Amino acid sequence: MKSEYTEQLLLKGLANNDSKAIEIIYKDNFKMIQNFIINNNGDYDEARDIFQEAMIALYEKVQSESFVLTCKINTYVYSVCRRLWLKRLQSQGKFSNQMEFVEETVPIEDDIEIHEKRNAEYEIMERALSSLGEPCKSLIEGYYLKKMDMQAIAKEFGYTNADNAKNQKYKCFMRLKKLFFSQYNIGE
User: Fold this and answer.
1) How far apart (Å, rounded) are the C-alpha atoms in residues 49 and 106?
2) Are 17 and 96 in a shared domain?
């Protein structure tokens, strides 16, 4: 609920040329677009150009009273940038697939729907992880997010060896999985 409120404030700020809102949208999204474009035959300057075009498109949309954003800002920006970048690659002859019918092959609605579903799943996982409790939460974060090996986890959490740490991680993971799917199934 809080993030929805924040998103609406950012959109209103963008519509009113609020530099703080524009800066937040930029900081929250540019790195993702930069990585996408650099990983797909582009460079930093092209990423900046594409991102700027997407920001202009979003700005023009929020100027309309009837515009309602049905996804997160980052999902919208990513989808617009992706489409713009694919069109640019096609025009430069760098994209080898048939791109004549980009509108049919990459419908933005499908892109947004996929990202919305993924964002919802991430939020459910975040809630499940938060309700997991200690030491499981820290152990799971250590292994999956901090990429710690079992020796380091055993040492940090006081297990006698890596095998015991591995067994505990498995038990914690099973609890997390159960929490995730109990919340996931409620949402569907």
Assistant:
1) 21
2) yes
